Amino acid sequence: MGVKNIFKRYELKFMLTTQQYIQLKELMKKYMQGDEFGKSTICNLYFDTPDYLLIRHSIEKPVYKEKLRLRSYGTPKNDSTVFAELKKKYKSVVYKRRIGMSEQDAMKFLCERNPVKDTQITREIDYFLNFYNNPKPTVYLSYEREAFFSKTDSDFRMTFDRNILWRDYDLSLCKGVYGEPILKKNQVLLEVKTAAAIPMWLTMFLSENHIYKTSFSKYGTAYKTIFERSLKGEKHYA
Predict the structure, then answer these.
(1) Where does residue 219 rank: exposed (0-12), middle (13-18), buried (19+ CB within 10 A)?
(2) Is 48 exposed, middle or buried (0-12, 13-18, 19+ CB in 10 A)?
C-alpha cells in the first residue's frame, strides 16, 4: 500500500482489555492483514494556543473541530521525514491532510513560519497557523501501534494502541519516547477507521463482549491531567 496524504473516513474508538485484544486478533486473522508498517512507535507533537483553546474546544464535542500535529514513526533525527498533519472532524467524519518533510524543516515551518514548498496542504496549514495566532508545541504523545487493513477493502483499517505516554516538556520528537502513561496496564485502545460500515464479524464480536464506542481522546486525557494539576498548583514536569 502506498502512503496516503489525504484521508476522509469515520473513526470509531473502543477500549479493550488485554484478553479481548488477544481474542480479537485471533478472529482478525481470517479478515485482516498487517499494515506495511506493522508494529510501530508513533510519536506526535500537538500544537495549541497558550490557553489550550483547541483541545478545550475539542473536549466540548462541537460539530466541527480541528487540530494540528507533527507525527513521526519512531524517534526521528533532524533530517528524518516527519508529517505535518491537519486533522478536522465535521459531523463524525474525519478529514486528514498531511505533508512530509524533514523534522528540521517542519519545526521551522510550524514554529518560525519559515517558507516551505507551496502546496494546497501547506497553504491550509499556514492558514491554520495564522487563524490561531501561531500555536506552539504543547504536548508530546507516543504509543505502540499495530495496524491492520481488510483483505477485501483497503479502506477499512483497525489499529491497536498500547503504552500511550505523554509529556508537556522536552517538546521535540527528537527527544525520544518517554512520559507519563495514560492507559491502565490491562487496557488497549482499538481504533476502527472506515469509509463505510463496520463489517458484521466485528460488530458481532463487539456486541458479544459488551464493548461499546468511546470518545476517548489521547490529547484530551493529557490536557485534563494538566488542568487538574494546575488547579492544585502542582508542577507536571520531571
Answers:
(1) buried
(2) buried
- How far is 224 from 148, CA to CA, in rounded Å? 30
- Exposed, middle or buried by CB within 10 Å (0-12, 13-18, 19+), for 84? buried
Q: Give the dihedral of Cα atoms 221, 83, 192, 13; nearest 10 deg.
A: 10
Phi and psi of 28, rounded to 5°? -65, -20
DSSP reduced 3-state for 173: helix
Grouping H, G, I as helix, E, B as strand and the rest as coil, residue 94 is strand
Q: What is the pLDDT of residues 131-189, one digit of tens each?
A: 999 999 999 999 999 999 999 988 899 999 999 999 999 999 999 999 999 999 999 99
Give which of 132, 112, 135, 115 is closest to 123, Cα–Cα.
115
